[in-house]
Amino acid sequence: MREHSAAPSVEHKTRPPIEGLSPADKVTIAYLAIIALLTVISMERAGYWPEITGVHVLGVVAVVVLAFSTKRASLAVSSKPGPDSSASLLIIRFVHGWYPVALIPLTYKELTYLVPRIHPRDFDVQLAALDHRLFGLHPTVWMERFTWPPLTDLLQLSYAAYYFLPIVLGAVLWSKGWADRYNFWVFVVVLGFFLSYLGYIAVPAIGPRFLPSIVDAQTEPLRGVFLFAPIRRMLDQAEGITRDCFPSGHVEITLLVLYYAARFHRRTFWCLLPFGAGVIVSTFYLRYHYTVDVAAGVVFALVVILIARNFYQRLGGCLPPDSALTIQ
Q1: Any residues with CB less than 8 A from the CB of 213 and at least 6 apart, and which?
Q2: What does pTM read for this prediction?
């Protein structure tokens, strides 16, 4: 299918400067400020609260400096064009455009330390009980009947691919010069991730594969052929024991990737769809999530989709009409 080629298409093939604080910058600043505030409130349990708060304040300052450095460099090129200033502007635009994506794993990693200190209570028992009340059994135990080593390998690989799905879509939009779509997508990504992080703090849980009552009920251990064990071990070492079950960020972000890929670039959507479907199935099959986590991930994704456009514009973002963004 070819892209919509009405008058706004010229705008899609250029990369206009980001002037001042972008909507993604503002969401990032708000999240850093909220975490800093929660850390100060929890200072009795968070032994490193001065350092953590200081790093978040520096992060806010860095975002502001980067945003206005981009604006200043853009104005400099406009008033006095030249190869050196143009090269500098390209570099700073790239950093400004991509830093929110790089910040996501860093803000996630700190949750391993912060969540049990900000909210020192796990809700695994309650989430498992809700699953059992809804279905009359534990879904991860029921799914034992479908375990098959090659499928386990495939789904573990799909689960790990989740980390690359937002980057792939962003890289496609950036490489094609679709600034309006790319900037909006980065805003959606940071909004989706940071909302899920706040969910982890509100409802801490480590998942059914660690809950003793479910572990004891499992009669069939997960086994792969070649990939399952090393990939799971690598993810466990990279992530640590983070209370990151509710909502399922894997489901939320995957649904956002698939929805906006279908909107912005249909070919990318079809390429990512098998991986996205694998991510969602793997959350149950690999015993990472309770069913209510997955349902919450769906709800969070729907909320982001419903509010994203208006919220983006309220924060100063500019978007052409839907007809100019949507593939026809």
Answers
A1: 125, 128
A2: 0.90
